[in-house]
Write a structure and sequence with these properties.
Order of helices and strands: HEHEEEHHEHEHHEHEHEHEHHHHHH
Number of helices: 16
Radius of gyration: 20 Å
Number of strands: 10
Shape: globular
Bound molecules: flavin mononucleotide
Largest sheet: 8 strands, parallel, barrel
Mean pLDDT: 94
Strand order of the largest sheet: 1-4-5-6-7-8-9-10
CATH class of the largest domain: Alpha Beta
Low-confidence stretches: none
Helix content: 40-55%
Structural class: alpha/beta
CATH superfamily of the largest domain: Aldolase class I
CATH architecture of the largest domain: Alpha-Beta Barrel
Distance between the termini: 37 Å
Length: 332
């Protein structure tokens, strides 16, 4: 079974975001809570991705740390494992693990422009290294076999837009899907996304590999905006990343905004699930970066956020919330 053939048209995907979209955050986005059922207003995306997982790290003494990113529960399915690295043989090892672990697919990161990875020649640097990019895709496809779909997440080019050459090259591998972040690598996330390149990408797809699903990514902040791109360009899916920071209910239909009580219930759920999942593995302070997602856009939000940022433990944060939102804390 190829999961991309089972998804609705169009389908919506939560983007992989390192140190953000871990197993806990993905579960929060599904809205399902063990203690309070489905939290009002939430809706699951059609597909999740893991944070990017380093294949070379997985095949080293650092395996245990790297494996945190591969933790998941059945509610997060369908879930694609995203991987990156340099050595094709390590991609083979990790893909075999991903297959056994029950992920719905494997995605290769060829788009991350961070200096620490491109300096090594990995991720977006592969846009200018067809030889190694091809060896990696071939290794992953061979290890994945027929039942685990292989996709690539990439950009329009490295320094300049290079759609014709680079996307044609990728499509030559008959990928199950490809997500295109509609910027070059050097543009990072700064310049506006170039949606018009989708016309060329879809033409190339139709000519070279009609089965490959095309997923657009970059600056998409709502379902409605994604649906317009689908209508205009004939793409198959839409990936939303930072849009989730503005609205954790972004995957819901007709929900441009969320009520503060819904947001607080999600935050309470997040704090409790973080403690339950990561105690002994991840410490408390990095949890604070999520507070702005839930505590924003309503009266008293800035004041509440300041109090939450001053806390030093899960329990303290729940106590601060209980002072203002007793019912949300008690229910979940
Ligand atoms: C904090 C953060 C971490 C990211 N980590 C990853 C990652 O692990 N893998 C990846 O392919 N892209 C990663 N990205 C890029 C996003 O997946 C996405 O391509 C980018 O944010 C553009 O989409 P957006 O405008 O909807 O946010 C990351 C982005 C952010 C903001």
């Amino acid at each position: 079974m190829n999961i991309y053939d089972e998804l609705p048209h169009p389908f919506f995907v939560l983007a992989p975001m390192d140190d953000v979209t871990d197993t806990v955050f993905r579960r929060i986005i599904t809205g399902a809570s063990e203690s309070c059922g489905i939290i009002a207003g939430t809706a699951k995306p059609d597909l999740f991705f893991t944070e990017f997982v380093n294949a070379d790290g997985f095949c080293s003494v650092g395996r245990e740390k790297v494996s945190q990113k591969l933790k998941f529960t059945p509610e997060e399915q369908p879930l694609i494992a995203q991987i990156w690295g340099l050595k094709p043989e390590n991609f083979t090892t990790l893909t075999k693990y991903i297959k056994r672990a029950g992920f719905a697919g494997v995605d290769i990161n060829m788009g991350c422009p961070e200096k620490t990875v491109v300096r090594k020649g990995a991720c977006a640097a592969l846009i200018n290294n067809e030889q190694l990019a091809g060896e990696i895709i071939t290794a992953v496809q061979k290890a994945a076999g027929k039942n685990l779909p292989v996709s690539v997440k990439t950009r329009l080019g490295y320094k300049t837009v290079d759609t014709e050459r680079w996307i044609s090259f990728l499509l030559g591998f008959k990928l199950a899907a490809s997500t295109i972040h509609l910027r070059t690598a050097v543009q990072m996330s700064k310049a506006p996304a170039q949606y018009d390149e989708l016309t060329k990408i879809v033409e190339l797809r139709d000519k070279i590999s009609p089965e490959t699903k095309i997923i657009a990514n970059g600056d998409i902040l709502s379902r409605e905006q994604g649906e317009e791109l689908v209508k205009k360009y004939g793409i198959d899916g839409v990936m939303i990343g930072r849009g989730i920071f503005h609205n954790p209910l972004v995957f819901s239909m007709n929900r441009a905004t969320s009520k503060n009580t819904e947001l607080i219930s999600l935050l309470v759920h997040h704090i409790k699930l973080h403690e339950k999942t990561w105690t002994g593995e991840k410490c408390y302070p990095p949890l604070k970066k999520y507070f702005k997602i839930y505590v924003s856009g309503f009266d008293g939000a800035a004041d509440l956020r300041e109090k939450l940022m001053a806390t030093n433990s899960h329990q303290e944060a729940l106590e601060v919330l209980a002072l203002n939102y007793r019912n949300s804390v008690r229910q979940c």
